[in-house]
Amino acid sequence: xxxxxxxxxxxxxxxxxxxxxxxxxxxxxxxxxxxxxxxxxxxxxxxxxxxxxxxxxxxxxxxxxxxxxxxxxxxxxxxxxxxxxxxxxxxxxxxxxxxxxxxxxxxxxxxxxxxxxxxxxxxxxxxxxxxxxxxxxxxxxxxxxxxxxxxxxxxxxxxxxxxxxxxxxxxxxxxxxxxxxxxxxxxxxxxxxxxxxxxxxxxxxxxxxxxxxxxxxxxxxxxxxxxxxxxxxxxxxxxxxxxxxxxxxxxxxxxxxxxxxxxxxxxxxxxxxxxxxxxxxxxxxxxxxxxxxxxxxxxxxxxxxxxxxxxxx
Length: 313
Hints:
It contains eight helices and ten strands. Helix 2 crosses helix 4 (129-141), helix 3 (94-103) packs parallel to helix 4 (129-141) and helix 4 runs parallel beside helix 5. The protein folds into two domains: 2-213, Rossmann fold (3-Layer(aba) Sandwich); 241-309, no CATH class. It is 32% helix and 16% strand. By secondary structure, the protein is of the alpha/beta class. A hairpin with a 2-residue loop joins strand 9 and strand 10.
């Protein structure tokens, strides 16, 4: 079993898209895992309400999220097709904080915890969130007996190196077991590495070694097809908005906005001058094409995906 925990977008959590992490889900399915991806209380179309912790208590926030995931584990244990003695818990961003808080409970059947850019940036007035986050990780590290694997990038817009290295130091000093993979820069924002197809070459080899070390399946055993990705072309540089064909100035302005987004992302255009883009989440290529097609009677085609121009004239 692999339980993947989602992050928290800005704004009202109830309007957040349903998380799917298709890239990562496929990698685990290929290795023989059943993947569970729950939306926590108050997120997307899930029931209940998302409760912010009072003041600047990030540790309590993570622990409350972990309670919901403990309920998911209870459900997993009732499913005859699932091996409740071999569970992996994964989390990205706010889901990474959730996974680390869950690890402090040492739940039955969980063999390991993987943290992708985990944490919570608490912007409330008077909150020194970096200190509160470090205290939360120290609190979890003092209780957890599970080995954990962490991934953070240098150009993470939420948790820069001075923050994530402090989290690791505090966690280990408190008695926690954590292997930190600080992989440097990734795209325009390393916070999106886990969702990006190109990110697999960073995390999959490390995760395979980790899975093997905790007695979980590590190598692919089945073939799983994904969404086709166009090949890179030499039509133009990725940052050259003036090179976009067919679109007007509004389309070029939208492309400039698109370039400021993190990966995964995609931009589509049509011969009629329509355009559309999507970033973050899953299947941005499909979403970008759909956004473009809403405004075009001509077929839309992908112009750029992640950091590459894929346009075929």
